[in-house]
Amino acid sequence: MAIHKIKFFAGRGSRYLAEKIVASYGTKLGESEVLNFSDGEFQPCFLESIRGCTVFVIQSTFPPTDNLMELLMMIDAAKRASAHQVIAVMPYFGWARQDRKDRPRVPIGAKLVANLLVAAGVDRIMTMDLHADQIQGFFDVPVDALYASGIFVPYIQSLNIEDLSIAAPDMGGAKRANTYAKYLHTPIIISHKERAKANVVGKMTAIGDVEGRNIIIVDDMIDTAGTICMAADMLMKKGAKSVRAAITHPVLSGSAYDKINDSALQEVIVTDTIPLREGEDLRKFTVLSVADIFADVVERVHNYKEISSIFFK
């Protein structure tokens, strides 16, 4: 089976991570540039031939929307430059929370993004910890949905925490929390919340034994930090010894950093799928890189090897 030459390129929003991925893979990023127009338009351009190559375009689609548009245009440019295959490496898949119609007359944003990627010509998607597993079904191309548990579980084990329990911040996160609890051989706690409105939690309680436990809350993303901080404070009031959080995607909008630093959270473990905001107080944050996982999966996909065995799921 012929193996086509592989080339990596990065969007501007994820160049910091792309450089780590290609270093782990043992190569370097391809040359590209973006021409900016005075009205806000931009035009990506590959500065080297990619004809017949398998092209990996690395770009998370966190805000602003320019990151998504740049990814789409780079995919289109690669297809028009006769790339053999174009694979989008999206460590963070934006709009993933819009995976269904949760009220009348709203879009399904995740499905729209999937349609846009396929229309642009993508042949495969690589992403991590999708907000909802069913998003894979929105695509008619292969989707490699990776798991941050592959780096979180070893780190948590290295802490040697006694009386450890894993917690889900809401009922929707119970499956993820159960996976961590299974591998770490710990009890599970589920926080039950009632939202007053989007991004605002009304009240919260815990299901499970909290008193005397060192608790780690696991989730796929942290946005305003309202839920996670409320859960941490609630768990401490119920007798927990300590509360940490292991969150894959640090969206951290608005005053999220201040909320975390003012909360009962002892440590917030995140990945580098989204860069932390410069100038913020990061004393509670531990950042683990996903670069090695993505580099390993890229090598396996490119050489037609299986990937399922390397993940905690």
UniProtKB/TrEMBL annotation:
PROSITE patterns reported for this sequence: PRPP_SYNTHASE
Keywords attached to this entry: ATP-binding, Cytoplasm, Kinase, Magnesium, Metal-binding, Nucleotide biosynthesis, Nucleotide-binding, Transferase
One GO BP: ribonucleoside monophosphate biosynthetic process
Pfam families: Pribosyl_synth, Pribosyltran_N
GO molecular function per UniProt: ATP binding; kinase activity; magnesium ion binding; ribose phosphate diphosphokinase activity
CDD domains attached to this UniProt entry: PRTases_typeI
Catalyses which reaction(s): D-ribose 5-phosphate + ATP = 5-phospho-alpha-D-ribose 1-diphosphate + AMP + H(+)
Keyword Acyltransferase annotated: no
Gene3D superfamilies associated with the record: 3.40.50.2020
SUPFAM superfamilies in UniProt: PRTase-like
GO CC annotation: cytoplasm; ribose phosphate diphosphokinase complex
UniProt-listed InterPro entries: PRib_PP_synth_CS (IPR000842), Pribosyltran_N (IPR029099), PRTase-like (IPR029057), PRTase_dom (IPR000836), Rib-P_diPkinase (IPR005946)
The enzyme's E.C. designation: 2.7.6.1
Superkingdom of this protein's organism: Bacteria
Entries under PANTHER family matching the protein: RIBOSE-PHOSPHATE DIPHOSPHOKINASE FAMILY MEMBER, RIBOSE-PHOSPHATE PYROPHOSPHOKINASE 1, CHLOROPLASTIC
Protein name: ribose-phosphate diphosphokinase
Organism of origin: Alistipes communis
Gene name of the encoded protein: prsA
